[in-house]
Specification:
Largest sheet: 7 strands, antiparallel
Keywords: Iron, Metal-binding, Oxidoreductase
Bound molecules: fe (ii) ion
Number of helices: 4
Organism: Sorangium cellulosum (Polyangium cellulosum)
Radius of gyration: 21 Å
Family: Belongs to the carotenoid oxygenase family.
GO molecular function, one term: metal ion binding
Helix content: under 10%
Number of strands: 34
Cofactor: Fe(2+)
Strand order of the largest sheet: 22-23-24-25-26-27-28
Length: 482
Amino acid sequence: MTTGTAMQPDGAALPGTGSPPAASSGATFARYATNAEREHGFEPLRIEGRIPEGLRGTMYRNGPGLLTTFNQPYEHSFEGDGAVSAVRLDGLEQRATGAYHVVESEGLRFERDAGRPMFSSRAPWRTRMGNALRRRFKNNANTSILVWRDRLFALADGARPTELDAGMLTTVGETDLDGLIAQTFSAHPHDVVARSSIYNFGVRFGRKTQIDLFELPYKHRPARRLGQVELAHPVMLHDFVATERHLVFLVSPARLVLWRAALMLTPVSKLVRWSEQDGTEVIVVPIDAPRSVTRFRVDPFFQWHFAGGFERGGEIAVDLVRYPRLNSLHQTGERAARCGTYHRAIIDLARRSLTSTEVTPVGCEFPQIDPRRSGSAFRYAWCVADGAAGDSITRIDTETGKTVVYDLAASERASEPLFWPRAPDSGESDGWVLSLIYDASTHTSHVAVFDANGLQDGPVARVHFDHHVPPTFHGKWVPSPA
Ligand SMILES: [Fe+2]
């Protein structure tokens, strides 16, 4: 167990957060958000098609995979225990292996020893009261993956990282990274390639609410806390932007109701209150002068995720999937038309202004960019979007607004598409795109590999698990050493 808040929000992560769900879709995908049939170490996976020769590495995914414990389903997928899948691809040898493990947190082990729920909304009232008083909660590590200095971590917003054994995918345990992390470490760390570092934040709750800022250099220098920024209220803050010079936060008026979160009260939608009058606060922190913060408020809007951001003259460009307001948390996990669209926001620090322009009206989520351009200018973003039959994988040209689309079958659901370049010096859209796809018609999951230049032509390879993988939020492609 650990101390802190129990909130681990990741609403948009499951496809279709927002609008009213289609009934038939709900029936088709009813088995998607259920426990996987089994856990296992790396074992051969069936290859359909041909893995591109130059593609060698491992795709990691994380999401709330343990959704029923002690014969009781969690009230909401946010409560689910993290489960990490890993698929190793070797295009040269045409080999694929995969592993799947639930994160064995201290809290989950404690519950298993007790033989009953001890932390979730399914725990007895008295137990939850005791947890709240002792500031005890389960770190279910169910949101994303961090790879830093060859170490593998499962992340969730309201908690510290949980280290995993990269070779076995088994759980090592929670870590504060040698005292670096006071309370939480968000599930959205971002590389700034030009600075050879990863940046992240953690919201610290207490008498004051503040954002802790972290820098994790790729090599040599120790990780450090850059500073902190105080917030007026406890809020749900899920993602941010790191450019070559700045850390940027767009703090939506999504106030957390901490006492409800501490008591694990349901429904989850009541853990956050949309406080329209607060507006969205723009906070810009210079990485090299973290005390010189610029902050101002603009009209309210909400985002779960950013594609990236970069310096543009004296301005900062920030790409996000923007929602008019916080969409309903209780609908997370059900298929519906997305109501967030891809925007580019321009922040002018001198004028203290933010101007947001819709790039394309297509509903989308999980924007990803070429990882070589993280923190710098980019043209293309890859996302899961509304498609003809349900989900699509879509490439957005942020300069023209034009899209390239691959429509999935009606029985399929996509996860966040990950781009990887064909070669270190290849063009921005020259590479591969990988997505873990669930197929309700077979109740199995596979990794679809697309040639990024021919996305619309469909996967060049599919690598199949013989079981399904429950919905995942975020992941990472890690290339094999050359
Ligand atoms: Fe997320």
